[in-house]
Design a protein that fits this description.
With 211 residues, the protein is an alpha+beta fold. It has 9 helices and 4 strands; from the N terminus they run βαβαββααααααα. The protein binds glutathione.
Length: 211
């Protein structure tokens, strides 16, 4: 059995979508970020960076294994099950490339945009401008990629699509209406959101955790 430590955020949902896709049984441990539960001693022992998602695989070789960072979790679960990441060759590196592009780009930039535009006590037009421009650029990259290929890694659905789905869905839902000048016109992203969002495993993963 795998324990999944998560909350109602796009990063957390990468792990729950993946667990649903590969059909491994898992136990959800909700970490309420609003109550600062990510800083508890018990969670710090599992996720030393105090962020969700994290997993503990009680059936790992050599005994229970704790893993934090969504990219590492996606690769681990793909390799454990032999699903959604090619074992070798070009397809593997395309999937890793777009997965880590998400972890280093879309996640942090959208996270900072959300903070400076919505939650910061002092408004910083420079910071809002910086993260708005970078977010728009990243979605233009996504749109171009999905114009040339059905999925981010190429012909096949992979961990790269799982990494990007939650953040892209959240951005499309919020920015398309609130700030169309940031979101732009993205027909290929819209097609991909419908395809990926229509998967039963994705629907189930997006509903985790139940709060
Ligand atoms: N690079 C990390 C980012 C994880 C992350 O930012 N998690 C957020 C929720 S979406 C979190 O736990 N925030 C709590 C905090 O910052 O205190 C990953 O991809 O797993």
């Amino acid at each position: 059995m795998i324990d999944l430590y998560t909350w109602t955020t796009p990063n957390g949902r990468k792990a729950s979508i993946m667990l649903e896709e590969v059909a491994l049984p898992y136990d959800v441990k909700a970490v309420d970020l609003g109550k600062q539960e990510q800083f508890s001693a018990a969670f710090t022992a599992i996720s030393p960076n105090n962020k969700i998602p994290a997993i503990v695989d009680h059936d790992a070789q050599g005994g229970p294994l704790a893993i934090f960072e969504s990219g590492a979790i996606l690769v681990y679960l793909a390799e454990k099950t032999g699903k959604l990441l090619a074992a070798s060759g070009r397809a593997r590196y395309k999937a890793l490339e777009w997965t880590f592009w998400q972890v280093g780009g879309i996640g942090p930039m959208l996270g900072q945009l959300g903070y400076f535009a919505l939650r910061a006590k002092e408004k910083s037009p420079d910071a809002v401008e910086r993260f708005t421009t970078e977010s728009a650029r990243l979605f233009a990259v996504t749109e171009r990629r999905l114009l040339e290929a059905p999925y981010l890694a190429g012909d096949d659905y992979s961990i790269a699509d799982i990494a990007c789905y939650g953040w892209t869905w959240a951005a499309a839902t919020m920015l398309e209406r609130a700030a169309p000048e940031i979101w732009g016109d993205n027909p290929s992203i819209a097609r991909w959101l419908e395809t990926v969002g229509g998967r039963e495993a994705v629907k189930r993963g997006m509903a985790v955790p139940k709060v």
